[in-house]
Amino acid sequence: MAGRRGSAFKILAGTLVLLAMAGGAGAGFLWWTLVRDLPDFEDLADYRPPLTSQVVDRNGIPVAEFFEERRLLTQLSEVPKVLIDAFVAAEDDTFFEHGGVDYVSIARAAWANLRAGGETVQGASTITQQMVKQLLLSPEQTYERKMRELILARRIEQRFSKDEILFLYLNQIYFGSGAYGVGEAALTYFGKPVSEITPGEAALLAGLPKAPGRHSPFLNPERAEERRRYVLDRMREEGYLDEASHRIATEAPPELRGAPYRDEFDTAAYFTEEVRKRLVALLGNDAVLRGGLRIETTVDLTLQRQANLAARGGVEAHDRRQGYRGPLRTSDPKDLDATLLALAEENGLAETDAETGPDAAGRAEGNDLEPAWPESATDAGLLGVVVSLDGD
């Protein structure tokens, strides 16, 4: 009996060992599949995103921009603390504590989504994970991509500091309305440098990356305001805003206004297009659209504006003296024959004698009137006579 028990135990132990080896081999193969072709994140240390090239006139006033992605590279020292607080409160309240992955948030989000019947109602991506998705991976929603994102987030936290991660994140993310990065977003929505952002403005910007179109203050102002108030509430809950500052920011929605100098870009558009063509021929398209160049030119925006006004005024004055003033008369299609005959008579092109004119011939033969037109309307004195038809 003891021998049988010993044999059964050996079989069970062997089976468990084989299962463990198989599970280990499977896990190892899965791990190898996930990490075998991970992107090289070391390149992030030399971060060079597409930047806007700016054309300025002889006085340094911007007159045009060339870009693939409208972005102004912003150092973290230029970003006010209130804007960083807004992003941390809205997107990742444990950013400064976790190591790239917030496992508690993942469990909480999984439970919330499970209670919602499998629908994604809550996310758990940290700022580091979002940066990884933006810079290193595709946005596809698959378990494999998510696992690779988690692995990269852990490794990046070991390689880069929190400030370096914030710098990459805040310059890479899309804010809607063609704005990439916080520097460009501040100009696009508020017409000011990011260093001058107020708490209310910071909350609006921090609420955009989650869904730039749905929360756009230009496209959906009500949703944008709802999202802004949510971020302000989170900032208060996390201790980034006191009650007084929260109340002031909540009661005073920020004023939306774009960069004022961009309203003048049409003034020298023909000139700056020639500048672009020459630069592309000289430096290549990538350098012009992605290089963040500052292009100094000879044009004077004030003089160009005056020249445009003078040219337009001259053309309008010429038009008033000699320009086209619309049709001299109109005709319903059913009255066209009679109208043409009347014009012919007025210009001496049709015989009006009852016996020899076209009327007589038409009446005699029972045909429609067909006035005889000369070969050259100009020779016949019709220059400047215009007929337009009413109706279809």
Fold blueprint:
Blueprint: H1 2-35, E1 53-56, E2 62-66, E3 70-71, H2 81-91, H3 103-115, H4 127-135, H5 143-159, H6 162-172, E4 179-180, H7 181-190, H8 199-206, H9 221-237, H10 243-251, H11 269-283, H12 285-290, E5 294-296, H13 301-322, E6 329-331, H14 336-346, H15 358-365, E7 387-389
Parallel strand pairs: 1-5, 3-4, 6-7
Antiparallel strand pairs: 1-2
Describe this structure in words.
The structure is a single chain. The longest helix has 34 residues, at 2-35. This protein is elongated. The chain starts with a helix and ends with a strand. The chain has helices at residues 2-35, 81-91, 103-115, 127-135, 143-159, 162-172, 181-190, 199-206, 221-237, 243-251, 269-283, 285-290, 301-322, 336-346, 358-365; strands at 53-56, 62-66, 70-71, 179-180, 294-296, 329-331, 387-389. Helices cover 51% and strands 6% of the residues. The strands form three sheets. The protein has a three-stranded mixed sheet with strand order 2-1-5. The protein has 15 helices and seven strands. The protein has 392 residues and is mainly α.
